[in-house]
Structures are given as structure tokens and as C-alpha cells.
Amino acid sequence: MNHGKKNNPLNRKYGHKKSFLSNIASSLIKEKRIFTTLSKAKELRKYIEPIITKSKIDSIHSRRIILSYLRDKKAVFELFKDSFKKVRERQGGYTRILKVGYRYGDKSSISFIELVDFNKNSFFSKKKKYIRRSKKKKNIDKL
Questions:
Q1: Of residues 6 and 110, more confidently modeled
Q2: Is the pLDDT reported for residue 2 higher than 70?
Q3: Which of 50, 88, 125, 134 is most buried, most CB within 10 Å of its CB?
Q4: Does residue 24 contact residue 37 with C-beta atoms inside 8 Å?
Q5: 82: which residues sit within 8 A by CB, 6+ positions away?
Q6: Nearest-CA neighbor of 25 among 60, 61, 74, 91?
Q7: Residue pLDDT, tens place only, 114-140
Q8: If you average pLDDT over residues 97-122, what whole number do you get?
Q9: What DSSP assignment string belongs to 70-117?
Q10: What's the per-residue H, E or C state across 7-25?
């Protein structure tokens, strides 16, 4: 039976998983986009969405609650800056997970997780311009 298996333990004990998620969540807030495996990205989404929802109320109490989750003062200050105003106005769905490929060493699926409103310089927003070239005419010498 599959009862009580909603969360992926990521092959870590509870304390290690908690510190790992707080570390990767604070790096996502600072960098706005990171590469990680697909399973870690899915767990990070469950962890960071409620944190961003709690940041909508700017009070000392909410800052202290978020600091207890993230354990990084710079990430908490970044979360309450005016640059995150666009994110706080959303109703939900603050993150986007995109599958990129597979890791070379062990073929684990690599994904790209980013905050949705910071996609100006997204990994996939840069479009390549292709130049269509005409077929070159071959000069055939007459024999």
C-alpha cells in the first residue's frame, strides 16, 4: 500500500532534507533560476510556494517565520524587496519547472526551476536567428 508516501524523502533523513531544502530555496531566491534534478525541483516547489505566499504580508512576524524556514538573512531581505512586488501580486504558481535533459554521469533528468516573473533573461527566451542560405551553383567544367 502507498499510504503516507506523499513526499519524496530524496534519500535523506529529515534534518538533512530540511537543511537541503532551505539552502536550495535561498539560492533560488537570490539567483532567480537554478539547475537541479527533477525530483529535487518538485520538492523545492512544494517548499518555496508557501514561503512566497507568506511574504505577501510584510510584518516582523512573517519575516521571522520565513527566516526560520530559509535560515539566510540575505535571502529574506531579497524576498521583501520591491523587485519581488510583481511576484507577490500573483495568486499562486510562483515557480516554473522546465525539463532540460539528462546528466552525463548517471543519466538523471536535469530540470531548470525559475521564478515566473523574473524570466526576462530566461534560459529559453533567447531565440537563435537562422540564416537561410541559397544553394550554391556548382561550376561544372565542360569536358
A1: 110
A2: yes
A3: 88
A4: no
A5: none
A6: 74
A7: 999 886 655 555 555 666 666 666 666
A8: 89
A9: H--HHHHHHHTSGGGHHHHTSSS--EEEEEEEE-TTT-PEEEEEEEGG
A10: CCCCCCCHHHHHHHHHHHH
